Amino acid sequence: xxxxxxxxxxxxxxxxxxxxxxxxxxxxxxxxxxxxxxxxxxxxxxxxxxxxxxxxxxxxxxxxxxxxxxxxxxxxxxxxxxxxxxxxxxxxxxxxxxxxxxxxxxxxxxxxxxxxxxxxxxxxxxxxxxxxxxxxxxxxxxxxxxxxxxxxxxxxxxxxxxxxxxxxxxxxxxxxxxxxxxxxxxxxxxxxxxxxxxxxxxxxxxxxxxxxxxxxxxxxxxxxxxxxxxxxxxxxxxxxxxxxxxxxxxxxxxxxxxxxxxxxxxxxxxxxxxxxxxxxxxxxxxxxxxxxxxxxxxxxxxxxxxxxxxxxxxxxxxxxxxxxxxxxxxxxxxxxxxxxxxxxxxxxxxxxxxxxxxxxxxxxxxxxxxxxxxxxxxxxxxxxxxxxxxxxxxxxxxxxx
Length: 401
Ligand SMILES: *Cc1c(COP(=O)(O)O)cnc(C)c1O
Known about the structure:
Blueprint: H1 4-19, E1 28-29, E2 36-41, E3 44-50, H2 63-76, H3 84-87, H4 91-104, E4 108-112, H5 115-122, E5 132-136, H6 141-148, E6 153-157, H7 162-174, E7 180-185, E8 187-188, E9 193-194, H8 197-207, E10 210-214, H9 229-233, E11 241-245, E12 256-260, H10 262-271, H11 273-276, H12 283-297, H13 300-319, E13 331-337, H14 339-351, E14 354-355, E15 358-359, E16 369-374, H15 381-397
Parallel strand pairs: 3-14, 5-6, 5-7, 7-10, 10-11
Antiparallel strand pairs: 1-2, 2-3, 4-12, 8-9, 11-12, 13-16, 15-16
Helix pairs in contact: 2-12, 4-12, 5-6, 7-8, 13-15
Bound molecules: pyridoxal-5'-phosphate.
Residues 114-116, 119, 140, 142, 185, 189, 214, 216-217, 245, 247, 256 line the site of pyridoxal-5'-phosphate.
């Protein structure tokens, strides 16, 4: 029986979050994910233009992916009721691993329940207390947690600060590190910019370090063939380990992966704890991801539309006087100041039929709250115009512009 005093403490914490404008609520979508979504409000469905899904290529409800998932359910069933190494590996799972490896041009790949788990299991099997990890300060929470689970020494450099990275690498060497791994997001999802992978690989080579990239916000829609930030920045053969997700561009289902050289993947199969001790991905999800890669690889038309939406939307908001973070991805963050302002802006946009989310502490630093918008190939040109007009109208109402 939980003690009343403990429950009261939790209630106080929740009340503090609400008082600080930091309390997150969830709206209910009453239909599929897409460029337009129906939101359930007071027993009604209201249509919104959706600017906050990770549905970059618009594949989350693609009919061929839905059909592939249904067919796999008929042929392979609903669930596996096993981890991979006991009796949870179907031909489908190996097909997807080999397809990811072929797509990203690595020896092999290994599946996880999510990229959060992939990053959780990425470091500990490879590195021990004689080794070092040098990590960008803006890296995703799952990388931070994965590093915490590993005994390697930790070094951090300010986001994109190559001088500091150089210093940390020297430091790690002079502290006697045996193996050094640099860890970075390919795209920093809160700011929407691409890591300086060319410079990172140069420094890695100079100091004899390896490079790991979490490419969740890039695989499928950035770079040639959608092969992500290594392809975009021309470092495909200089990166050692890539982690990624099937929960964003590649169908938006669930599942994560790590792609790397054969012995790396082989060791993960023996030792990565989230792989060993968690259930195998369900067949429909695996088949959907396979189909999503087939579509994404050939989707130059969708990638072009996505890029055109991003530049049109950026231009419209910049011209109107909004404060944006500069970038070259379909993530367009509109800065608003504090958390309460972000919530007010999100609801003012909601009232105008645009679905966005305010991002604020602890997801981004205090005072750097924002509306993070994300473009999608599921959106039309008219949707982009509609959304930009709504931002301008709401921004004037709240005195942001
Ligand atoms: C979304 C995301 C993850 C988590 O991916 P899931 O498959 O949803 O667990 C990890 N890293 C980065 C950079 C992400 O954007």
